[in-house]
Amino acid sequence: MYLENLQLPEDLKKLNNAERSALCDEIREFLIRHVAKTGGHLAANLGVVELTVALHLTFDVYKDQLIWDVGHQSYVHKILTGRAEQFDTLRQFGGMSGFPKTAEDFSDRFDTGHSSTSISAALGYAMANQLQHNDATAVAIIGDGAMTGGMAFEAINHAGSLKTPLVVVLNDNGMSISKNVGGLSRRLKRIRNTNRYFQFKSDVKSILDHVPVLGKPIKNGLITFKRAMKNIILQNAVFEDMGFTYLGPVDGHNIEDLCTVLAQAKRLQEPVLVHVHTKKGKGYSFAEKNPGKYHGIQSFDYATGEPVKKAEGKSWSTCFGEELCKIAAKEDRITAITAAMPLGTGLETFSKMFPTRFFDVGIAEQHAVTFAAGQASAGLIPCFAVYSTFLQRAYDQILHDVALQNLHVVFCVDRSGPVGNDGETHQGVYDISFLSHIPNMRILAPANGEEMRKMLHYAIEQVEGPVAIRYPRGTVMEEAFLEDKEITRAISVCDGTDVLLLCVGTTVWDGKNAAEILGKKGIRMQVLHVRSVKPIDMQTIKLCAAGKKMIASVEDNVVLGGFGERVEGLLKRHVVKFGYPDRPIVQGSIKELKQLYGMDGEHIALQIEKSLAKQKVYG
Predict the structure, then answer these.
(1) 364-378 tens-digit pLDDT
(2) Which among 28, 78, 357, 393 is annotated as catalytic?
(3) SS3 call for 475
(4) Helix 255-268 to helix 17-38 angle, to the nearest 10 degrees?
(5) E strand or H helix that includes residue 503
(6) 203 with 195: CB under 8 angstroms?
(7) Measured between alpha carbons, how far is 487 from 507 in angstroms, rounded to an integer?
């Protein structure tokens, strides 16, 4: 057993090719068995085993800077830096992160979790290396769809103009990058990936630079001719046109070939893109056949590949997707947009039922929002389904391109509130704060499936400008409330005369629990279910607040800039605010996070009881 006996990363370079291959097999088995227990990102990591080993053999991960794009494919890197023993705690509360974390190990040079950021960060490192006369090499490992993000191309464009030494490894495991074809293309690839080719290229440039009068025109002519031929033959000139030297494609599961090309890229001391072909899910038949399913997966049975615990009931995403299909069947102006997540956002059925009205724009949230704005300007009703954490990436477009023009775009904000084990970069606890101050924006928050369906109809059929419906991860509640008002009005779900608790969306269930606990202690609390976060139903809130000893609010959002602060300002009265603090929200199950941050019914009841007692002392 290599993982038990090796001192990693020190012993990796002592292995021969056969031993490295055996180590890769062992790593794959290790990953499958551990992710089966904890859940996590499996398919992407199975695909980068040999690539990660080659990167560790070529670069010094404690001197050079390896930046993993998105970061969910860094499990192998964590194993090779001596963290295998921590994998039982992967993505668990207090355990090892499923993404690179600078606080975990020095080789994790940059915290990542969102897509298309690695080249920008690596270029920042590369420029710092140059300015500080550091001979370290900055390396960005990007792929898994991240090249569809415009930020990646912004960074490539900048890097190519600077000519700063930088290595970008493009992990191509199914992206739509043109394939090189033909015997001449294969021959050119072999020639280009040799030292002799680059030495000859350098010598010719040097000679022509010293030839008076005709030298420079000849050199420029040769460069122009070379690029023209590559446009015809290689079909990858886009990277070289942006100032990068292109190497590849290379087999991402051949360690020897990978090391050869990566070493060449390191020696060149200029912007280099290494194009690597890998197979997502390699080594586990279930993941190879269905890499999307095993991209991010909960605990599963190793032998069958099936989830250990199947979801109970319908998810919020499914509830949304089903209702959107029903509405779209009657209204042909409706379109659905996703940023590379049709399955995760519940749009898979829509994509099959209405293929001409479904748009997957790739990992490009900024483009998605302005694309929706263009559709809305032309009379369509676009519905952009997106995770809360990824909607952050398009803030300027929401404000500038949608809201200021008061365009009818429906933002279906999935995974609002805490999302659990993916940790700080994925928690959806900021959308109320960053959407509330955007002009013309409406924000709705359902607590059950019935409200979700009614809000979707309202957003599509009655609203004229932008509207966001925010809903959490997990199983949708179908328990209905007795009071039936207009869907934007707040409704009372528990009566009481001592305390008024304002609950946003699904936090009403925690509020009801708190009311039951306090009721047993003689404290009567009215729970008001706030369904419209913006505009706020202040008429109902003021009516219910009259005569109450205390006003409190609870929201699955940070307190800073949130619903509670806005109500406090409008009421001109102190509000005890329950929400997430002004610091990164750690990983853990949603239940654990609610307990940690005092957001479950028990903690809410306890804090309200303490606050009431304090009022009596100082009142």
Answers:
(1) 999 999 999 999 999
(2) 393
(3) strand
(4) 100
(5) strand 499-504
(6) no
(7) 17
Give every CB contact of residue 493 below 8 A, 6+ residues apart in sequence: 481, 483, 508, 511, 512, 527, 528, 529
Predicted TM-score of the model (pTM): 0.87
Residues belonging to the chain: 619
3-state secondary structure of 98: coil
User: What one-character-per-residue DSSP string does 268-336 give?
Assistant: H-SEEEEEEE--TTTT-HHHHH-TTTTTSB-SB-TTT--BSSPPPS-BHHHHHHHHHHHHHHH-TTEEE
In the block, residue with structure tokens 């429906």? 410
Kindly state the DSSP code that residue 113 receives in the 8-state scheme. -
> In b/e form, how buried is each residue of 347-381, taking b as 16+ CB within 10 angstroms?
bbebbeebeebbbbbbbbbbbbbbbbbebbeeebb
Is residue 125 classed as helix, strand or coil in its secondary structure?
helix
Longest CA–CA span in the chain (Å) reads 97
Which of 138, 141, 120 shows the shortest CA–CA distance to 44? Answer: 141
CA dihedral 566, 571, 575, 579 (to 10 degrees): -20
**Catalytic site includes residue 280:** yes
Distance of CA 469 to the CA centre of its chain: 19
393 in catalytic set: yes
- CA end-to-end distance (rounded Å), the chain: 69
Comparing CA positions, the residue from 23, 17, 31 lying closest to residue 4 is: 23
Give the CA dihedral 579, 484, 434, 104, nearest 10 degrees: 40
Alpha carbon distance 380, 409 (integer Å) = 9
The one catalytic residue in 50, 240, 323, 365 is: 365
Which residue type does 30 have?
F
pLDDT at residue 181 is higher than 50:
no
Burial of 386 (0-12, 13-18, 19+ CB in 10 A): buried
For residues 136-143, average pLDDT = 96
Which helix (H) or strand (E) segment holds residue 139: the answer is: strand 138-143
Share of the chain above pLDDT 70, in %: 90
Asked if residues 476 and 449 have their Cβ atoms less than 8 Å apart, the reply is yes
Look at residue 184 and tell me whether its pLDDT is greater than 50: no
**Which SS3 state, helix, strand or coil, does residue 211 take?**
coil
Query: Which entry of 28, 78, 280, 548 is annotated as an active-site residue?
Result: 280
Q: Identify which of 381, 384, 372 has the alpha carbon closest to the alpha carbon of residue 328.
A: 381
Give the pairing type, strands 532-534 and 442-444: antiparallel
Contact 403, 569 (CB under 8 A): no
| Interaxial angle between packed helices 195-209 and 215-233, expressed in degrees from 0 to 180 and rounded to the nearest 10 | 150
The token duo for 62 is: 């404690």
Amino acid letter, residue 439 = P
* Tokens, residue 157: 């464009």
Count CA atoms closer than 13 A to 519's CA, side-chain side.
Answer: 14
CB 507, CB 554: distance < 8 Å? yes
Q: What is the 3-state secondary structure (H, E, C) of 388-440?
A: HHHHHHHHHHHHHHHHCCCCCCEEEEECCECCCCCCCCCCECCHHHHHHCCCC
Instruction: Give the pLDDT confidence of 447-504 residue by residue, as tens digits.
Output: 999 999 999 999 999 999 999 999 999 999 988 887 778 999 999 999 999 999 999 9
| Strands, sheet with 138-143, edge to edge from the N-terminal-most edge strand | 65-68, 138-143, 166-172, 271-277, 245-251
